Amino acid sequence: MEYTWWQRGIIYQIYPRSFQDSNGDGTGDLPGIIERLDYLQWLGIEAIWLSPFYPSPMADFGYDVADYCNVDPLFGTLDDFDRLVAGAHERGLKVIIDFVPNHTSNEHPWFVESTSSRDNPKRDWYIWRDPTPDGGPPNNWQSLFGGPAWTFDPTTGQYYLHSFLKEQPDLNWRNPEVRRAMFDALRFWMGRGVDGFRVDVIWLLIKDAEFRDNPPNPDYDPDAPLIENRYFEYIPAYSQNRPEVHEVIREMRAVVDEYPDRVLIGEIYLPFDQLMHYYGSDGLMECQLPFNFSLVLHRWNARGFEQVIHDYESLLPAGAWPNWVLGNHDRPRVATRAGTAQSRVAQMLLLTLRGTPTMYYGDEIGMHDVDIPEDRIVDPQGRHDPRRSRDPERTPMQWDDLEHAGFSTGLPWLPIARDYTRVNVAAEQNEATSVLSLVHALIALRQSTPALAIGSYSGFKADGDVLAYLREHGDQRYLIALNFGSATQQLDLGTTGYQGEVVLGTYHDRAGDRITGAVMLRPDEGIIARVQAPLGAVRDEAVYL
Ligand code: NOJ
To answer: Biggest alpha carbon distance in the chain?
Structure first.
């Protein structure tokens, strides 16, 4: 089997506002990213994914697009974008961009037209419905950012649908003209050399044709930490994940396949059994990588993860390629979720699992969420409910110990973490025991070791705080053992007779250690060991999960 770049390599997400500012306005930009391409090449990743840089009023920091075929002046110009693609390609890096098809900005000319009158040709490009007889919204659908998903337009006397902010009206993907226009935008970027797309909320694209009310959610608990959102007061049965969405994604995939070697990645928050449908079925292809967010969503716990990885691996359809995401611009950073002490274990997990890893900028140096004072919250979700603010995980990249962490010469759009004088790229590149040095070594090892890059996965029986698994390819066999806890643990190799030596550990002093019979793991320690079975040994199925 041949493996392509998006299977073999690592995807690195850049949030352009926060990566590198080149003009001192306090906001990152495309020329800034160009300045940092050498760093990305050094890190060893395969592809960068850029969150939106399109012209936008920035009600949702670029996820409200006012023109799908241009660059917002805040981030630069189309020429800058072309230079970025050329610079990335020269260094062997692929470029994936965000595509936001579910909604536009309310300032997009299409919506301005659509809202101008009921008989405007663009009226049906968005989702307009009459009020109920008492003047209320057409149904009980809620916006993911809080509040009703419908806003009344007094000029034309109808409501329009917005799954997010009222400044983000949902496009009507049942309209063939919308599909055509949006697919042309994909072609526009592929023509400029873009290697793939991460498609925003792809599972939301089509809504129930009859606009039925969502059923109440009997498990809704307004006090539960992650679901304070009234959105979950109802089960979003009719407002998302509708069967017809697959037809749209198949069309989208066919467009992406008009150009060679491109990738379609879907942002999908769904349980595994439903997520798997987004690879495609009946020989009709959809996303090569439907994002798997389970490492982001589950509590940091060895037994829980063992189950999650097992479930995911078992449910993957034949021929489908797995993927794992450790962090993104919507969820607390991994160093905050798992705790600083577990940062290294987390990176070792991501970079040794089977399937394409997606890293979030700054996690490689151990950046954590930054406390943002309430009066400085800018994220719309955070302004609605401070507990759900996404600002803490979007703070500027920490490059060095100079003012503003080398991110900008001006005042950054979000505060920088106080520990930046210690937690920064320059310091960590010079420190053999830093998180960055470990991530660099993990990437180099993964990319030079077929068992880790493309080998098979088998769960290995472990208990307590230990998560263990094997990655195998040909006669290469690697054992990964991770201690998720803060006490010393032991992993019993059972009857396998496995012997070998540690090639990389989260503690600096472990490489070269012999492994026989049992593996001792110190608090928060992870190791990767190359192991062999004794000559003539029979695979003992009892030790595998
Ligand atoms: C998902 C994006 O990741 C998030 O940042 C955004 O707010 C919503 N989609 C709406 O586009």
So the answer is: 81
